[in-house]
Amino acid sequence: MGKTVGYRAFVFAALIVSLIGSKLPASKGEEPARPNVLLILADDLGFGDLACCGATDMQTPNLDRFFQAGIRFKHFYANCPVCSPTRAALLTGRYQELVGVPGVIRTHPESNWGYLRPDAVLLPKFLKKAGYQTAIIGKWHLGLASPNTPNERGFDHFHGFLGDMMDDYYTHRRHGQNYMRLNDKVIDPKGHATDLFSEWACDYLRGVKKDTPFFLYLAYNAPHTPIQPPDDFLARVQKREPSITAKRAKLVALIEHLDAGIGKVLKTLDETGLGKRTFVLFTSDNGGQLSVGANNGPWRDGKGSMYEGGLRVPAAAVWPGRIPPGSSTDVVALSMDLFPTILDAAGVGIPKGIDGVSILPALLGKKQSLPKRDLFFTRREGGPAFAGKTIDAVRRGDWKLVQNSPWRPFELYHLAKDPQEQHNLAQKEPKVYRELLAVFQKHIQRGGAVPWQPPPK
After folding, report:
1. pLDDT in tens, 391-436
2. Domain end point (choices 363, 383, 406)
3. Above 70 in pLDDT, residue 19?
4. Model confidence, pTM
5. Distance CA 7, CA 425 (A)
6. For the residues 59-76, what does the mean pLDDT come to?
7. Same domain, yes or no, for 197 and 104?
């Protein structure tokens, strides 16, 4: 009997150690091991476009398992409803207009609405100072030429695409130009971009120095347009979902293909033995594009819009032994909050002057009261719908003030009572309207000090 009890106690103790080993204090004189960090960003993935997020016509087993293995966000916002601004906020911890990227960075000057501020310090530079090896694989979209290329902005390794989107997932061109790079070398690889980025990420994980922590930013193009899934994935969806529309089938297949690629990366992470000490985060840069069949769950509108469907995105984080599996958080967070959260997890001091807030305690299952803050969302764009002006929103608690067209008045919604933003209270709540408009004006003035076009040559 004594032997049995002793054995059970040993097994239980071993299990506890394996589960919380990363919480154990380091030996005297040793520093705690810094975690690896893998940040995975999808492009235009709608809030409801994963099976685990409510899609009934889709099979995404790898991301479903990922969301169950850690913590999912109930209220995660992209900083902007389009690509470049959110990526700028994500990598700087600041509102996008404060680092010079209020709109999309594009090839042609007449349609370009951002230029990454030269003195903005990006996440990889802070991590490198702490001994991290840093890499970006996939879509960059924060500059097409020197000095705003990934290697010049802090990444040791770049294997991916500089531009905003690909006109074809197989030829990888944009406006006839090849933006594929291996560091500063132009490359012309063969294959679907999602497959290439997944393969390159797996290769990177197999080759990292095992005694040095890494930060890998894996930014996919999918499921951004063109909606171009591999033929076998499309055929599988059409066979499985006989009533699905042709448009929706293509998007579902492209997302399922993305899920398969992410599954390969996560499998490689485990096979290399890196998974147990890797902090993995997943989210999207903005909501899904409705015109190609995206599902943004219960939220109004989609990509490009300041209504909730353009800003609310799926998000989850996994850190074995640290983040409780199967958990969720009600914390309202933005893309820019991942910057200080990652630094916090890595034991790196969070710089002063950023706008993001670390939400690491909440992710670890602890009670966290975030400082009271107003959340701002701004997008600048050209063309007849914008003419270089902005659309904007500010959220304070449950109140949200939004102008979804530069040619229309601001609208006011109470998100707790009206999450679908159907009842404009601007006339009924003039005091709240005026207060939010006043704080919004101050925020716009902050951004007015920062240029968002490249300096003249």
Report:
1. 999 999 999 999 999 999 999 999 999 999 999 999 999 999 999 9
2. 363
3. no
4. 0.93
5. 65
6. 98
7. yes
Same-domain check for residues 168 and 315:
yes
Residue 234 to residue 244: CA distance in whole angstroms: 11
Q: What is the mean pLDDT of residues 294-299?
A: 98
Note the helical H segments in 208-245: 231-240
SS3 percent helix, strand, coil of the chain, rounded to 5, is: 35, 20, 45
Residue type, 29: G
Residues 264 and 334 reside in one and the same domain: yes
Q: Are 411 and 289 contacting, i.e. CB atoms less than 8 angstroms apart?
A: no
DSSP secondary structure code for residue 183 in this structure: T
**DSSP class of residue 117?**
-
257 with 390, same domain: the answer is no
pLDDT at 210 over 50: yes
Residues 6+ apart with CB under 8 A from 368: 331, 359, 361, 362
Torsion-angle region of residue 416: left (phi > 0), alpha (psi -120 to 50) or beta? alpha
Contacts of 238 (CB under 8 A, 6+ apart): 244, 249
Q: In what order do the strands lie in the sheet with 214-219?
A: 185-186, 180-182, 157-161, 133-139, 214-219, 36-42, 278-284, 315-318, 71-77, 327-334
pLDDT band at 32 (very low <50, low <70, confident <90, very high): low
What's the 3-state SS for 351-401?
Answer: CCCCCCCCCHHHHCCCCCCCCCCCEEEEEECCCCCCCCCEEEEEEECCEEE
Domain that includes residue 381, residue range:
375-447
Is the distance from CB of 336 to CB of 356 less than 8 angstroms? yes
Cα separation, 308 vs 301, in Å, equals 7
> 100-140 pLDDT, tens per residue?
999 999 999 999 999 999 999 999 999 999 999 999 999 99
Torsion sign, CA atoms 354, 307, 49, 219? negative
- What contacts 392, CB < 8 A, 6 or more positions away? 306, 376, 377, 378, 379, 402, 403, 440, 444
| Residue 280 sits in the same domain as residue 180 | yes
Tell me the C-alpha distance between 20 and 416, whole Å.
37
State the average pLDDT for the chain. Answer: 93
Alpha-carbon gap, residue 156 to 422, rounded angstroms: 47
